[in-house]
Specification:
Blueprint: E1 32-33, H1 45-59, H2 71-81, E2 90-93, H3 96-107, E3 113-117, H4 123-130, E4 134-138, H5 148-158, E5 162-166, H6 178-187, E6 191-195, E7 219-224, E8 237-240, H7 243-250, H8 260-271, H9 273-276, H10 280-296, E9 300-301, E10 308-312, H11 317-326, E11 329-330, E12 340-343, H12 347-360
Parallel strand pairs: 1-11, 3-4, 3-5, 5-6, 6-7
Antiparallel strand pairs: 2-8, 7-8, 9-10, 10-12
The structure holds pyridoxal-5'-phosphate.
Keywords: Amino-acid biosynthesis, Aminotransferase, Histidine biosynthesis, Pyridoxal phosphate, Transferase
Catalytic activity: L-histidinol phosphate + 2-oxoglutarate = 3-(imidazol-4-yl)-2-oxopropyl phosphate + L-glutamate
Family: Belongs to the class-II pyridoxal-phosphate-dependent aminotransferase family. Histidinol-phosphate aminotransferase subfamily.
């Protein structure tokens, strides 16, 4: 046929997708990549060996479709989460992004709305719009915190079908009190998702929103293996909710959405949860080192209960970002004026970032 290839605008694309830009954090091959809040510590060798054995076993039956109900994996997540949860309260998918997409496919969609307190995780609006729903951005108070009464008033006013509460919040690192979750739940007519992607990096004695599940059939608590579990490349996210809500997600998932290899790898990794989570304390130490050092360099770090730090006081974020890039360090310009976000890496990676930042000076 030949000829000129069509442009996106020329295709019969859904009207509501026109003008949207895809998620696009740069994937540049730099020596120090601290831009997408990964766990930069590899999976320990003994666990990797066990995962390989489990995957090899699963391969023997890969001619068959996998367990559609990923029963063993759901039991593994229930045991890991505790709080008396059982497998009928657990759902999982290829990353918590897909878990959130399932929630939106079931409870969002055309003619409906989803709500979050901006700035928050950039995929919420994208996932919302991709299901045909409308995104409503609420606001935060001083230093990105949310007050219970203010949050409840905003949610009551918007009356959204789905609310996303990111706890702690990406990209700011801000903790979220259970009092806010309770007030938002009481004010919301629809489903309330508490996204605890970074929960394992919060102080040990903090209560999870999982403790609030009993009696709240519209509450969802999502987690991921991508961060604390160092499993981003395997793509495994999960949530806990009332069994009836889990039934709603079965209506929208693709049959056999979790491959036999993913199920085997994730179940094996979960059996080694303490080893997989071994690096969390080390990462929290590097995070706090970043906060203290960028502050000493004259920037303003925000309180973080995650594996990253958002810091302000950057005169020109794009030139500082570029200067770090030129020194082999990739961090994230999340679009907040005068701010940049950096993920806590290994001790050496963190040192490389801090040394590079110090060498740039504030007039980059
Ligand atoms: C708040 C939050 N939720 C969910 C995700 C998605 O994680 P994944 O799809 O890798 O499980 C991320 C990833 O950065 C995140 O920051």
């Amino acid at each position: 046929m030949g000829g000129v290839s069509p442009r996106l605008e020329d295709l019969p694309l859904r009207d509501d997708l026109r003008g949207m830009t895809p998620y696009g954090a740069p994937q540049a091959p730099l020596p120090v990549a601290l831009n997408v809040n990964e766990n930069t510590h590899p999976v320990p060798q003994d666990v990797a060996d066990d995962i390989l054995d489990a995957v090899a076993l699963a391969l023997r039956e890969v001619n068959r479709y996998p367990d559609r109900e990923f029963t063993e994996l759901r039991e593994g997540f229930a045991a890991y989460l505790g709080h008396g949860l059982t497998r009928d309260q657990i759902w999982a998918a290829n990353g918590s992004n897909e878990v959130l997409q399932h929630v939106l496919q079931a409870f969002g969609g055309p003619g409906r709305t989803a709500f979050g307190f901006a700035p928050t995780y950039s995929m919420y609006p994208l996932l919302t719009r991709a299901t045909g729903a409308e995104w409503i951005a609420g606001g935060r108070g001083v230093d990105y915190t949310i007050r219970a009464d203010d949050a409840a008033a905003q949610v009551a006013d918007a009356a959204p079908d789905v609310v996303f509460l990111c706890s702690p919040n990406n990209p700011t690192g801000t903790p979220l009190g259970l009092d806010v979750i309770e007030a938002v739940y009481d004010a919301a007519p629809g489903v309330v998702v508490v996204d605890e992607a970074y929960f394992e990096f919060a102080p040990r004695d903090e209560r999870s929103a999982l403790t609030m599940l009993p009696g709240r059939e519209r509450l969802v608590v999502s987690r991921t293996m991508s961060k604390a579990f160092a499993f981003a490349g395997a793509r495994v996210g999960y949530l806990a909710a009332d069994p009836a809500l889990i039934d709603a997600l079965r209506l929208v998932r693709l049959p056999y959405h979790l491959s036999a290899l993913t199920q085997a790898a994730a179940s094996a990794a979960l059996r080694h949860a303490p080893t997989m989570l071994r690096m969390v304390d080390e990462i929290v130490g590097q995070r706090d080192r970043i906060s203290a050092t960028v502050e000493a360099l004259g920037y303003t770090p925000h309180e973080s209960w995650t594996n990253f730090v958002l810091f302000g006081g950057v005169d020109n974020p794009s030139s500082t970002w570029q200067a770090l890039y030129d020194r082999g360090v990739l961090i994230r310009d999340v679009g907040i004026p005068h701010h940049l976000r950096v993920t806590a890496g290994t001790e050496d990676e963190t040192t490389a970032f801090l040394d590079a930042l110090a060498s740039i000076g504030s007039d980059a």
